[in-house]
Amino acid sequence: MIKLTTGKEFKTKIRVFDVKKTYEDLDKLVNLGLVKNEGGELFSNLNLDRSGEIYTVCDFDDLETVRLLGFRLGNLLRREKVEAAYLKCQNPKVIYLLEGILHSNYEFDRYKSNKEELKKIELSVNEEHKEAIKELKNVMDGIFTTRDLINLPPMELYPESYANKIVEIFKDTNVSVEVLDKKQIEELNMHAFLAVGSGSSREPRFVVLKYLPLNEKEHLTIVGKGLTYDSGGYAIKPASSMATMHSDMSGSAVVVGLFKALNANKVKKNVVGVMALAENMISGHAYKNGDVISSMKGLSIEVGNTDAEGRLTLADALYYAATKLNSKEIVELSTLTGAVVTSLGTDMAGVITNSDSLYEEIHEAGILHGEFNWRLPITKELDAKVKGKFGDLRNSIPGGAGTITAGIFLTKFVEDKPFLHLDIAGVAYGDKKRYYKEGAYGFGVKTLYHYITNKK
Asked: C-alpha distances in angstroms, 72 versus 79, 284, 428, 435?
């Protein structure tokens, strides 16, 4: 476990070379063939007593490479059995190198019988980065909380237990937590949300987080999909697809991690979070393909596919955010469609939005912080396809463009509020990549944190 501190010097020194500058020592290393003068290079020259230097080469115009270099540096410090090291760099962008180092700390070994002993390593940085490091550590703590929640199996994380965990996480903080049970959800006429959870013996929960440090009524609202398990219902998934469906609550976990970071860093912005928690299961009580269900808004929805359940829970959650809360803007995250993986792969989230300015803010935050997203178009033809034949809307539309039509469906419940939907199905959970270990990635926490903190 690498702990960041400031103002100390140790016998192990880490040199940071900026590719835009000239260094005599770097030229010597290049001439000896030990490193190249390009971003991402890493070379260790330590003695047996761990004194000596570790050399890194950074291109601060390529922040993803800087983060990855930090991740590799963190792993190198462990391999070399370094106990303490000193890194000196004046460039404020060194914070992205430190971010990569902290990513290397993450380990989800809750269920392993033989846990690897994590030895503590102190990494001290020059004093001027103290405040930036404090903020970074709190954001990373939020990301790790998100990843831990997503990685929990469904036997442990279900609507009631999840709501209880959220209450515990925000105990004695400036985040208030309101948890609505099934009866209260029924009183709100959240029929679409209730239909999805009707097949499970685990009752749903509706959770509202409020972080309101400013004496203002208006706030941003972040909505996260909270399917703690998705079997597909009567449109049942194959076992290979179902095994990772504990991650179908990734959007809600991002909301939890985000609020943890906002609170820890005392961010002066009003933000509310909304999460509809349910399981999509099969039983004699479950909703069925072919049902026509209602919604909190009163719109009827033809259920063409019970595995297109996320948009049903979100329909009621978004309408609640638009009408029961004083939401200035609504941003929503969900592992909504497999189609987004076909469209954009596993390194980029899909975006559907009715606001150009909101997209620009989210898009720029994503680029800067390594969580890339791309906007998909809303067309009149695709909008028309969402309309139902026997009901007002339908939840499953054949013929392609599934990510877009799912996003269009959601826009019907935001009451013309500025709205942005992030489809994170391809970027929330998966194999080891870049500076992430296998499992949950925590995608979205950084983007939304910096979108909020930079909001004017």
From this structure: 10, 52, 22, 8
Name the pTM for this structure.
Answer: 0.95
Q: Tens digits of per-residue pLDDT, 400-438?
A: 999 999 999 999 999 999 999 999 999 999 999 999 999
Q: Which of 244, 240, 208, 239 is nearest to 229 (CA)?
A: 244
What is the domain partition of the chain in residue ranges? 2-125, 137-453
CA distance 227 to 279: 6
- The CA distance from 404 to 344, in Å, is 12
Angle between helices 159-169 and 250-264 (to 10 degrees): 10
Q: Tokens 């029929």 label which residue?
A: 191
Average pLDDT score over the chain: 96
Question: Is domain 137-453 in CATH 3.40.50.720, yes or no?
Answer: no
Residues 371, 29: Cα–Cα separation, whole Å? 34
2-125 is classed in which CATH architecture? Answer: 3-Layer(aba) Sandwich (3.40)
Burial grade of 210 (CB within 10 A; 0-12, 13-18, 19 or more): middle
Catalytic residues: 237, 311
Is residue 115 very low, low, confident or very high in pLDDT (cuts 50, 70, 90)? confident
Share of the chain above pLDDT 90, in %: 95
Positive or negative, the CA dihedral 208, 211, 217, 219 is negative
Dihedral sign, CA of 425, 429, 434, 436? positive
Cβ-based neighbour number of residue 131 at 10 Å:
9
Radius of gyration of the chain (CA): 23
Contact, 375 vs 397, CB < 8 A? no
Cα–Cα distance, 238 to 104 (Å, whole number): 33
- Please, what is the end-to-end C-alpha distance for the chain in angstroms? 37
For residues 323 and 308, give the distance between their C-alpha atoms in angstroms, rounded to a whole number.
24
Give which of 84, 101, 90, 121 is closest to 9, Cα–Cα. Answer: 84
DSSP 211-256: E--SS-S-EEEEEEEEEEEE--TTSPPPHHHHTTGGGGGHHHHHHH
pLDDT tens string 34-61: 999 999 999 999 999 999 999 999 999 9
Q: And the tokens for 309?
A: 């359940």
In Å, what is the CA distance from 442 to each residue of 36, 268, 281, 409? 33, 23, 25, 25
Is the CB of residue 193 less than 8 Å from the CB of residue 317? yes
pLDDT band at 114 (very low <50, low <70, confident <90, very high): confident
